[in-house]
Amino acid sequence: MPIDSFPLVALLLLFITATIMPVIKKEKISKGISLISFLACFLMYFVTLNYVIKTGGYYYRIGHFPAPIGIEFYVGVVECMLGMLFTFVASIVIWYSIYNIDYDISKEKINLYYLLINILVGSLLGIVFSNDIFNIFVFIEIGNLASCGIVVIKDKKENIKAGIKYLIMSCLGSGLVLMGIAFLYSITGHLNMTFIHESMIKNYSQYTRITTITLGLFTIGLGVKSAMFPLHTWLPDAHANAPTSSSAILSSLVLKGYVWFLIKIIYKVFGKEIINNLPILNIILILGSLGMIFGSIFAIYQKNIKKVIAYSTVAQMGYIFFAIGLGTELGVTIAIFHIIGHAVTKGALFLSAGSIIQSTGLKELEDLKGVGREMPYTLGMFFIASLSMIGIPVLPGFVSKWYLALASIEANKIILIGVILLSSLLNAIYYFPIAINGFFGEENLKNKVYKSKEKPLKELLPIIILILTMIYIGVKSQSIIDLIKTGLV
């Protein structure tokens, strides 16, 4: 099997394994198939990344007809890195869910759950690699149904309500994206991104108004789906009420797939020549800045630990939009780096919080005081992950903020450094008290038995691996950033 076909083979593997899960009677087999399929995909993307580093990015034709008639994937450095990220985090979350999914959903729905997870991540990989915007839309719609499914599968009133809200907002975003695709096709006659860009460069002066409208449709539509402030209203309920493994997948991966599509629309479909003549980057920059601040403010006032993390996601997505809005090469590079760092970190946060909730039966912050004595390792890992969100040196969150400050200076927008500092301060305000009240305070620790509710090592290992990976990303940040830059050239 040639290496250049691995991106397609990996995607097909996830879809094919998903189709056989409904006929499997034992849920343990479904769990194993899902985990093995993600690990196999991760290895294929790892091999492909090394291949691309040596030989360069390439277009992979699917079917008999070349572009623009046929469908093709573009396989580059960044695409392979995202493929590795998505399959790695999914593998760890599936590993975690093997021990904990029974707590969230009924036994008879477990096979369906893993079917949805495989389909969802497969659709995200399709978004990452496809060079055809209509095929990306098809993958988006597949992902819509799967992502709503992993929310409502818990089958409780609040989950169904959150899932319906998510579905309505997601369909609205998809509709706007489809309208944007229709406008692009009407202007260019193409659906392939490369050919659309070539046509747009030639004909932009004749369609300035419709180009602005089209870019607005994509930005709003994908902004809804990736929780851009103030289009994030569906996210807190969906992420907070979903099963823990679903929350981790939604926050770590799903939002990132749509952001990557937005980056491709801005820089690959339209390009700098057109974008620099439009106000869209300034709008994204403003909304990103507002998301960084207000996402954190909303998190401060939450009483439920999963809602705190959910609103933190709104703030962290603000950093990504902030970086994109700067409109520089360094800004886009750090947007991608933050996608990687945040995916791993937020996965660790949600899995840690889920373990605490499962062991204690408590979700409210007030009730979790002193939990650090009962679950010192779990809360300790939660605290380490939160340090990255706050921006403590060496960890990836700090690296992102440091380079965002440098990118702001490079873009002659020094005042934005104040937004970064304020956001970091707000992050500390809602993350530090969780650990402080969990580990310290005579009243908090009273009647708490040391390690009485701690998970066994085999259940902690997935979280430990995410934490170690997070630290590795921070330590090796310069190499990762340099690699991203080579993929953007």
TrEMBL record:
Transmembrane segments: 6-24, 33-53, 73-98, 110-130, 136-154, 166-187, 207-227, 248-267, 279-301, 308-328, 377-395, 415-440, 460-481
Keywords of the record: Cell membrane, Membrane, Transmembrane, Transmembrane helix
Membrane topology note: Multi-pass membrane protein
Main subcellular localisation: membrane
Source organism, top-level taxon: Bacteria
Places the protein is found: Cell membrane; Membrane
Similarity remark: Belongs to the CPA3 antiporters (TC 2.A.63) subunit D family.
Name by which UniProt lists this protein: NADH:quinone oxidoreductase/Mrp antiporter transmembrane domain-containing protein
Organism: Clostridium mobile
